[in-house]
Structure formats: structure tokens, C-alpha cells
Specification:
429 residues; alpha/beta; FAD/NAD(P)-binding domain; 2 domains; seven-stranded mixed β-sheet; two-stranded antiparallel ribbon; 17% strand
């Protein structure tokens, strides 16, 4: 791989949104660099262990496709799996419309698709500083690599870090919530038969374990008010706990979160080893990172409110659809607030929610797009992040080609490009 000193598009963060953004920008002809802090692309799908992206369908119809859907289909084909036949049944709970993928095949295909697109990739690298070039013609991007600090230039920067790290370094305003939703650490337990477990006995014993100060109810449950171990044990540890350790937007907060996540699993492991049926308990896999639901959002040129979302508001600059219930996990760990969408409602996302206020040549994709807390609790999920990533990559490439700001790219041209790459675009107001 030959690194350049200057790129058309620099994508910060190689997670769910960033991978798709980089592929789209590169496929559209832009010289593209993807920067990822870890050694693995894919974000929460891979490092976070939540490899069942959704939701691509609403009310029996596909509403998100494009590059993210291509990644899903390639993963299924490579691993010999079939696409589930659940999308047309609108009576099923929303999570039944997610697509469960082989995490490790997905990880390798993220690499393959990014490299195939022609984008350059830098792993084990973080953005250290951002400085606008003369005349707001682009960005000087300082990167912290294994060899030290290095500087490149980017005509357009896409912040897909999830925590809006690049946005903050560029000096644009953020909305930082007073409290944040708990995170979750996913893992894989083996060595027991969940069908043979006496759950009532386990739950009573765990309540005593917590009362003795050796555990927390959130270690085994999303609901600290009515804690039950069934979800954790029947899923063998997938997406089943609440990890509460403050805001993970900076290194101190993220460190506290990761330490508490692993401490939580250690408490559960020690407890289960004392219970009948768990004599052969083993931890087969532990995700490298906690999956974060919330940290910050940008103050954008437009802001999606809960009312906008649940009403399915149509925007004159709509770039993609979204679909998920309002899904706010309580900061205390006491369950979650859920609000399903009315039948037929399909929300959409405006370009203005991807553009920080007062910004030039800067786009945000993924969890940090401009939205209030309730709307963001639905917008944060993987299929929607993929869709915003593709929109960001597309508008960035067009802005470079047209020598204009991303806000000035005609929506009709963006829609044409996205359709060419198999995305589904909204009907605009």
C-alpha cells in the first residue's frame, strides 16, 4: 500500500459507518484514507461482538440496501448461511428482522471490501489534531501512528468515530448528555446446557450474591429492578448486560467502561462456577470492546427530534431511511424505554443532520449525527449507520469532484450516485 500525502476524503473511524463511507467514496473515484484506532474494522459488529445488523426492512419492504447490504449478503454467502425469511412478517418483534452473521467472516470481509474499493487503510492509528487549510479548502489531519505523529491533508473529512472525536478536534459544537445509556460487553460462555438450568434457583442465588456485595444485578440483566439471568444464559452472554461507568467519549471514560465491563464478567463467572450445572463453565470468547450506545451527538445544520422520527417526517435533503423503535436504555440500568413506530411510518435522515453547524468540508456519519436523545436511541443502530456512512461517502466524493462544500452538492446528484451503488434513497419533501 502506497500512502499519499494528500487525499480527497479522509474517513476517521473504521466501524459500521466508516467502512461503508470509505468504500463508497473510493468507488465513486475519490482517493480515500480510512483511519481506525484498533486492529479490526467493523466497529460494534466486530470489536463489539454485535454481529447481527439491522434493521434493513420496514413493514415488509426493504428500506436500506447499498454497500451495507452487500456486506451482509457477501458474509452470508461466504459462510454458507441463508438469508432469513422473516422480513415480510410485520407481526414479528423488531429484533427478528436483524441478520445474524459470522463475526469472524464479517471481520475479514470488511478488510476485503475496503481494499477492493481502492481505499487506503491505517489501523492502530488515531486522529490527533485537525486544522483547516487556507480558504477552508480542506483539512490538515495529524495522525498518531505507531511511528509517531504524521500529517496528511484531506479535501473532505468524514467523522465516523461514533464519539465525534474529529468533530471536537475541529472545533465544532457537540451535545453532551448529562447521563448516558449503559454499554454492553458481549462474550461467549460454554460448558453448560441452558435447557437444564433451574433458573429460579440461579436467580435466588444471584440475589444473595448481590446482597453480599459480590455482584451487581446489571451484570446479568438489562433490568436492575426485575433482574433475571435467563437472557444472559440462554444467549450464552450475547448483548445481555448493562455496563455503567460514565461517558466513554474520552480515553478516561472509555478505560473505566472497559475495566468495569470485564470486572462484570469476572463477577458473573465466579458466581456461576458456584452453581449446579456450571462445573465445566468456560469463557470461549470475549469481545475486545464494550458496545457503546451513547456518548455525544453533533450540533448539526439540522437536528432530528423524536417528533420528526416517529412521524416519519420527509426532508427536502433526505439521504437515507431509518427504522428502529425508540430504544432508550436507562442510565441507572433499570430497563429501557421503548416506543414502537406506528404502522407504515418509515423515518428518514436529512443531509443537514450529518453536517456540523458552521462547518466546511466536514461530514459526520453513524451514531453521532445531530439528533435528540430519544431519536438517537433509534438512529444509532447498525443498518442506519451503514446508510448514513454511504450517504457521507457519496456526498464527500461529489463535493471533491465539483470543488464545492458538501452542503452545496445538489440532492438530486447525490441520489443519482447512491442509486448507482444500490442504495435506497428517500422521497424528498
Amino acid at each position: 500500500m502506497r500512502m499519499l500525502k494528500s487525499y480527497d476524503v479522509v474517513v476517521l473511524g473504521g466501524g459500521t459507518a466508516g467502512v461503508v463511507a470509505a468504500i463508497q467514496a473510493a468507488r465513486a473515484g475519490a482517493t480515500t484514507l480510512l483511519v481506525e484506532k484498533s486492529g479490526v474494522l467493523g466497529g460494534t459488529m466486530t470489536n463489539g461482538g454485535i454481529s447481527h445488523p439491522g434493521i434493513f426492512h420496514a413493514w415488509g419492504k426493504q428500506i436500506i440496501a447499498g454497500i451495507g447490504w452487500e456486506l451482509v449478503l457477501r458474509t452470508l454467502e461466504t459462510s454458507g448461511q441463508s438469508l432469513p425469511d422473516t422480513f415480510s412478517d410485520i407481526t414479528l418483534p423488531h429484533w427478528r428482522h436483524q441478520v445474524r452473521l459470522d463475526t469472524f467472516v464479517l471481520t475479514m470481509l470488511c478488510d476485503e471490501m475496503v481494499v477492493e474499493s481502492g481505499a487506503n487503510v491505517l489501523l492502530h492509528t488515531m486522529v490527533a489534531a485537525l486544522k483547516p487549510l487556507a480558504g477552508n479548502s480542506g483539512w490538515e489531519v495529524s495522525l498518531c501512528t505507531k511511528g509517531g505523529l504524521t500529517t496528511i491533508e484531506g479535501r473532505v473529512v468524514i467523522d465516523a468515530t461514533g464519539d465525534a472525536i474529529g468533530t471536537a478536534l475541529a472545533g465544532f459544537a457537540l451535545d453532551v448528555p448529562q447521563e448516558t445509556q449503559p454499554a454492553t460487553l458481549s462474550f461467549r460462555l460454554t460448558g453448560y446446557d441452558h435447557a437444564a438450568i433451574d433458573y429460579e434457583a440461579v436467580n435466588r442465588a444471584y440475589a444473595e450474591w448481590v446482597a453480599s456485595g459480590k455482584g451487581k444485578f446489571t451484570d446479568v440483566s438489562w433490568d436492575s429492578q426485575n433482574p433475571r439471568s435467563e437472557r444472559l444464559l440462554k444467549t450464552y452472554g450475547n448483548n445481555a448486560n448493562h455496563i455503567i461507568a460514565g461517558n466513554s467519549r474520552d480515553s478516561v471514560g472509555k478505560t473505566m467502561l472497559e475495566l468495569e465491563g470485564r470486572n462484570s464478567l469476572l463477577r458473573v463467572y465466579r458466581f456461576l462456577r458456584t452453581q449446579p450445572g456450571f462445573e465445566k463453565l468456560r469463557i470461549e470468547h470475549l469481545s475486545p470492546e464494550c458496545g457503546v450506545r451513547e456518548s455525544v451527538t453533533i450540533k448539526g445544520k439540522k437536528r432530528i427530534t423524536e417528533t420528526d422520527y416517529i412521524s416519519g417526517r420527509s426532508w427536502e435533503d433526505g439521504v437515507c431511511y431509518a427504522y428502529y423503535p425508540i430504544d432508550l436504555h436507562m442510565a441507572t440500568g433499570a430497563g429501557l424505554q421503548k416506543r414502537s413506530l406506528e404502522k407504515g411510518v418509515v423515518p428518514s435522515i436529512p443531509r443537514g443532520a450529518l453536517l456540523p453547524a458552521e462547518s466546511h468540508n466536514f461530514i459526520v456519519a453513524g451514531r453521532a449525527i445531530s439528533s435528540d436523545r430519544n431519536a438517537n436511541s433509534a438512529l444509532r443502530v447498525q443498518a442506519t449507520s451503514m446508510a448514513t456512512g454511504q450517504a457521507a461517502g457519496g456526498v464527500a466524493a461529489l463535493a471533491v469532484g465539483m470543488k464545492c462544500d458538501p452542503a452545496e452538492v445538489p440532492i438530486s446528484m447525490l441520489h443519482e450516485l447512491l442509486r448507482k451503488h444500490k442504495a435506497i434513497v428517500p422521497v424528498v419533501a
